[in-house]
Task: inverse folding
């Protein structure tokens, strides 16, 4: 059941060292505050899963929380590279980072298979690319009906799936809208889930096109207004493009990053940070 | 080249090679085309096209926004303005599975860190060793399936020997593989890269071999200059032409967008 709790308690209960954890949100509704709380609680050896590891994963990787990254595009959207991610892959700083690399279509289908309770998903993808040789979780499969050779990718079933949404009601039903990415699939594919929300309301007004996650599909809910910053929550906040630009400078240098982490994440509580 | 009724050519000194590249890329999009747009230059060019000769261009972003009509340039593929102005907003699995995979999208618009003589794209690693790369790049994103399944692909890349290499270090997205017939052998449904637009000119696949050859130079650029900036011996098309310079209207629309 979607039990409402504090963010700190939710992370402490749900995320353990060595877990496979997916924080999703496709540019919109990225659960950044939850990522910071994972850093603050000093989790280690995580396998981090995310289609578009961007700033929050750069921070988690730079803070030494991750052992492995499963992803399809690791960059600072509209700005350039992720320097902490690069430093980890190229120089093993602060710890070596194993990678498992896919395309967006492959990652999306892996979540779909996880949500559907299937062992793998099938798509027309990857053929002729060098990803096939580097990523063991990409394999050819022949259609039993037509003989067409397609590609199979295994289901993603994270220990914990974390997403941000606009709101939840007091019973723990969650509602999100706008660009909804793979959030529904992530929650349904994960063994445990946490949804941070902009606000908790008495009643969820129906909204056309919104995704609703019934309370019993969610493990924990935490009210964290602004919890997606510097990404945004449609109807609540705007994307902070300046932050993405500024991150490029902060993240280039290990010392600058470490100072930033101390000041903005480790030295602050959730309440102060949001 | 453009749909402008009375084009007013701007003087060569009045525009940059970067503007020429973006404008030429915009011109490549016909009105009414359904276009899968990557962020950065492809997005700028597609939005420019929509504001000039192609008001009915359908912009599709991998965030699931179909028919987005942003009034300002988005910084990311998931800016709120894309969702607010879209005809439909769908989930990420849906955009790839229902819209891209079956071939519903006419043009895929991509960038590249490295591109080779057969139009293969690398956005993954620079260097021979994947496990120990010289430079780790962002990776694939939506590009492999965009390159495979859009009916045709247009690539925009700044011309340099670093970017235009004989063979890419890593095939992230397939162009023509190792030459004619490879796409069919791999079962890739789209035509592949029909045009590569750079700040120096335009490359297109040779009709027989699918090797990229120079078909146009931008005004003021010498063909030899393009060859010198290319990492393989770039062939020139027999009917090598010169791109029409930007019109004053195109330049104004581009600058207004930025």
Result:
């Amino acid at each position: 059941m979607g039990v409402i709790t504090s963010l700190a308690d939710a992370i402490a209960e749900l995320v353990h060292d060595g877990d496979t954890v997916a924080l999703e949100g496709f540019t919109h509704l990225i659960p950044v505050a939850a990522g910071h709380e994972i850093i603050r609680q000093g989790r280690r050896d995580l396998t981090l899963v995310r289609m578009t590891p961007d700033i929050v994963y750069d921070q988690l990787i730079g803070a030494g929380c991750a052992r492995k990254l499963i992803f399809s595009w690791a960059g600072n959207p509209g700005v350039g590279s992720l320097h902490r991610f690069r430093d980890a892959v190229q120089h093993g700083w602060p710890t070596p980072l194993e990678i498992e690399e896919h395309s967006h279509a492959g990652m999306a289908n892996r979540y779909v298979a996880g949500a559907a309770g299937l062992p793998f998903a099938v798509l027309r993808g990857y053929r002729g690319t060098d990803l096939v040789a580097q990523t063991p979780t990409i394999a050819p499969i022949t259609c039993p009906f037509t003989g067409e050779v397609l590609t199979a990718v295994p289901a993603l079933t994270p220990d914990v799936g974390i997403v941000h949404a606009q709101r939840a009601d007091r019973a723990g039903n969650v509602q999100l809208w706008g660009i909804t990415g793979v959030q529904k699939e992530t929650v349904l594919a994960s063994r445990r889930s946490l949804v941070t929300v902009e606000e908790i309301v008495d009643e969820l007004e129906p909204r056309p096109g919104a995704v609703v996650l019934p309370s019993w599909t969610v493990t924990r809910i935490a009210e964290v207004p602004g919890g997606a910053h510097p990404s945004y929550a449609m109807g609540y906040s705007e994307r902070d493009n300046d932050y993405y630009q500024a991150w490029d400078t902060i993240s280039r240098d290990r010392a600058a990053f470490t100072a930033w982490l101390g000041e903005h994440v480790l030295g602050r509580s959730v309440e102060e940070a949001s | 080249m453009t749909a402008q009724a009375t084009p007013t050519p701007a003087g060569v000194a009045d525009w940059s090679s970067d503007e020429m590249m973006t404008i030429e890329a915009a011109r490549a999009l016909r009105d009414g085309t359904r276009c899968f747009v990557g962020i950065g230059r492809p997005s700028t060019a597609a939005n420019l096209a929509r504001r000039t000769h192609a008001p009915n261009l359908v912009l599709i972003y991998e965030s699931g926004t179909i028919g987005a009509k942003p009034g300002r340039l988005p910084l990311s593929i998931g800016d709120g303005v894309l969702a607010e102005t879209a005809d439909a907003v769908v989930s990420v699995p849906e955009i790839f599975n229902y819209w891209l995979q079956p071939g519903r999208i006419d043009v895929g618009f991509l960038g590249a860190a490295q591109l080779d003589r057969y139009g293969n794209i690398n956005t993954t690693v620079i260097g021979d060793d994947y496990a120990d790369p010289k430079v780790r790049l962002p990776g694939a994103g939506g590009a492999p399936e965009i390159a495979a399944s859009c009916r045709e692909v247009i690539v925009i890349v700044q011309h340099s020997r670093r970017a235009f290499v004989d063979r890419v270090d890593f095939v992230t997205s397939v162009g023509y593989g190792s030459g004619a017939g490879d796409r069919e052998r791999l079962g890739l449904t789209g035509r592949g890269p029909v045009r590569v637009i750079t700040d120096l000119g335009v490359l297109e696949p040779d009709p027989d071999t699918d090797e990229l050859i120079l078909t146009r130079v931008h005004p003021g650029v010498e063909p030899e200059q393009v060859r010198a900036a290319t990492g393989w011996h770039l062939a020139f098309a027999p009917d090598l032409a010169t791109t029409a310079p930007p019109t004053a209207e195109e330049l104004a629309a581009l600058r207004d967008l930025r």
